[in-house]
Design a protein that fits this description.
about 5% strand, single chain
């Protein structure tokens, strides 16, 4: 599965408290401690938990195109919540293509 990620980091900036030891926020924030905030890239990308992998979380009964669309909508909501207008606009462009 190829997900059209725009690397805005929004999903990693809204992790909150997690039950997963590998996925915890920076103290006092909702930002995943594995996010490199300068690049918006995951520092454990190759070994990230399944919850961070869109392909691993896809329900067996759902087609890939629908799953990608659902996740793009979530990305857009996250980007808007964080007021990252430029990335939100980029996501809208991806969704319309």
């Amino acid at each position: 599965m190829t997900f059209p990620c725009v690397k805005c980091g929004a999903c990693c900036r809204l992790v909150g408290e997690s039950m997963l030891p590998a996925l915890q926020p920076v103290p006092g924030t909702t930002i995943c401690d594995k996010l490199d905030q300068a690049t918006n890239l995951c520092t454990i990308y190759e070994t990230r938990p399944a919850i961070c992998r869109i392909d691993a979380m896809m329900p067996a009964a759902m087609d890939e195109q629908t799953w990608v669309a659902i996740n793009l909508i979530s990305c857009l909501k996250f980007a808007r919540q964080l007021d990252t207008k430029e990335k939100a606009q980029e996501l809208v462009s991806v969704m319309n293509s």
